[in-house]
Amino acid sequence: MLAAVVERGDEVLLPDPGWPNYRMMLPWLGARGVFYPCPPSTGLQPDLDALASLIGPRTKVLVVNSPNNPTGAVYPTSTIAAMIDLAQRHNLWLLSDECYDQILLDGSWTSPASLMPDDPRIATVFTFSKTYAMTGWRLGYLVGSDELVDTATKVLESNSSCVSTITQVAAEAALVGPQDCVSEMVGAYRSRRDLAVAILKDAELFIAEPAGAFYIMADVSPRGLPSREFAFELLRQRGVSVAPGTAFGQVASDAVRISLASSESDLEEGVGRLAKFVLGRT
Question: What is the pLDDT along the chain (282 residues), one digit of tens a residue?
Fold first, then answer.
């Protein structure tokens, strides 16, 4: 979608913390990422005032990711509505990344397109990777105006032609087959989330409770190491792998991302080792 609308010199508003591949896509388009903060002080929700202040004459796209990777934050309807309003007032494209739309651990979730279904500048992207655990199949799709989809299709033809037939058949099987696996998986993630939250709260390393996706952020500042160095040392000394907060921007520089895509026993052991390492315990 970005290649279909972004021109050289344009700016794209991206969440911080946010999926790092967003900013990896921009250099080959000649565009620049501008990062709006979603700080721990707001429960990892977007700072809307800061976001508004970042909009300039070259701003072209506002990217929204809820449920969010890496934080698991789910934006309330009022926040989504405010972001739509900003995009409309400044004539921006709004790209909603809804890769985790079916992995909702608590409460409700709002898609921007559901609030403004007739806005041709709202585009939504989805994937089969998360809901159906089909990461290796590399299949996603875009929902938007006819004009946008036509342009995006032409861009796709120029770099990858099309999705293979066998992948499309696998996706069809996922859609029309039993859906029990999705609710079972979400239930497992919820249980693992609760376990990780309890351990982090007990160690006073808790930041915010994720309401979606399958990640949780942990505060590692008491250890006194930059998050990247912390992640390497945790792996070397305790055999636990996490993603440093700086991989996702600067706002989470004192945090690491924990994936909930592990068994409860592994999570209990791994998060426990992390807590002890942060607090200097053996």
Answer: 999 999 999 999 999 999 999 999 999 999 999 999 999 999 999 999 999 999 999 999 999 999 999 999 999 999 999 999 999 999 999 999 999 999 999 999 999 999 999 999 999 999 999 999 999 999 999 999 999 999 999 999 888 888 999 999 999 999 999 999 999 999 999 999 999 999 999 999 999 999 999 999 999 999 999 999 999 999 999 999 999 999 999 999 999 999 999 999 999 999 999 999 999 986
Tally the domains of the chain: 2
Amino acid, res. 100: Y
- Residue finishing a domain among 157, 176, 195: 176
In a 13 Å sphere around the CA of 191, the CA atoms on its Cβ side amount to 10
* CA dist., res. 271 & res. 35, Å (int): 29
- First-to-final CA distance of the chain: 49
What's the domain range around 268?
Answer: 180-278
Q: What is the pTM of this model?
A: 0.96
Same domain? For 27 and 85 the reply is yes
Q: Identify whether residues 260 and 128 lie together within a single domain.
A: no
